[in-house]
Input
Amino acid sequence: MKIARWDSGIKYDDPNLRWSDPSYILEKGDPGYVETNPDNETITNATSPKKGKKNMSNNPITRNLKVLLAVGEGAASGCAQIQDEVKLKQTRQTDLTQLLQELKGNPTAVPSTLGLIYLYDQTKLITAQAEKAVTDKDEEVRVFLTDARDILKKPLLLGPSWSPQWVLAGYTETGSTAVPNTQPERYASNSAISVFLAQNPTFQVPGGSPQPEITSSRAQTLHSELRDLLAAANTATREQAKAKDLSDAAADALRARLIALVDELTLLLPPDDSRWEIFGFNIPNNPRAPEPASALTLSRAGDKRVLAEWVRGIRSDDNRILIQITGVDSDWRELDKSGNVTEYVLKNLTPGSELRVKIISLNGSLEAPSGPEAQIVVA
Output
C-alpha cells in the first residue's frame, strides 16, 4: 500500500482508496486489492456480471455549474453543522467555502472580491462588445467600398465593365465588380483601394460634396480603425478563453471535493443515517422525495419563446415542467423534463397567449409535493 496525497493523481472513486489518517491506496498483492481499468471500473471475469461506475451512494455530483454551486453550498452548510460530530478529515467547511468563494466571489470581504464566474461573464460581455464594434466598422467599410465602386463605374474612370484595373482597386473577383462578401476580404480590399486612390488622385471624391467621400485618406482611416478593432476583439477572445479555463478548473476542483466528501461520508455514516440529508445528500438506503424548487421566474426570450429559471430543490436530480395556457388547457400538462438543470426555454408558443408554468422537482421516481408557479404573456 502507499500513502494517498492530494497531489498524487488519485481518483476519489478508486475502489482501492481507503480513507484514514493517513489515507492510503491498496496496491496489487495487498489484501482486498481490486483489479481496475483506467476508468476505475472493477475488472471482472467472463462469468461475473459487469459492474458499472460507482454511484457514490445514490449521490452523483453534477457537472452543471448552477446545480454544482447549490450542492456545494448545501454541503458546506452541513459541514458547518456536524463536521466534527461525524469526524470529517479530508473535506471540511473551509475547503468548500474557499472553492465556492473562488467561483462566486466574496461581497462581504474588505475589499470585496470578484468570483471567477463573474470575471468570465465579464470577459464574455467585453468580447461581445468588441465583436459588435468590428461588425459595425466592417459595415462602414462595406458601404465605403460600395460607394467607391459606384463612383469608379463612371465612364471616364474604370467604366461599368470589369477590367484588370478593378483588381488593383481591390475588387478581386475576376470578371466582377462586386464588393467582397466576407469581412477579411473587405479588409484587404479596403487596403488595396487606399493605395489605388493614392496613385489615381483624380478618381477621388473629396469630403463636403453631395457625393460620399471617396479618398485614399478615408480608406486608410477605415483600415486603421478596423485593424485596431480586430486586434481588440482577438485580445478579448483570448482573455475570455483564459477566464473560462480558470472558471472550469475551479468548478472541477469543487466537484472533486464534493465527490471526496461523499466518499468520506460513505465510510463514516451508515447508509440509513438521516444525517446524510444535513449535507443536502440522499440517504443511500432510503432516498426521500426532494424539497420543492423555488424562485421560479419567466422572461421573454424572443418571439414565441419564454425562458424559465428556478432555484433547485434540495436532493433533486430532475424537474417536471408543467404548463397551462389560459383558454386552452383546463389543467396542468407536462411539457418536458429539464434534467439536472434549473432553466428551460419554452418554444413555439402562441403570441399573446397567457402562459402559466409550474416546476416539480424529482429525485429519481420520487416527486416533490409542490412547486413554484409563474405566469407571463407570450410575445
About this structure: Residues 41-56 have pLDDT under 50 and may be disordered. DSSP finds six helices and 13 strands in the chain. The two ends are 64 Å apart (CA to CA). Residues 1-54 form one domain.
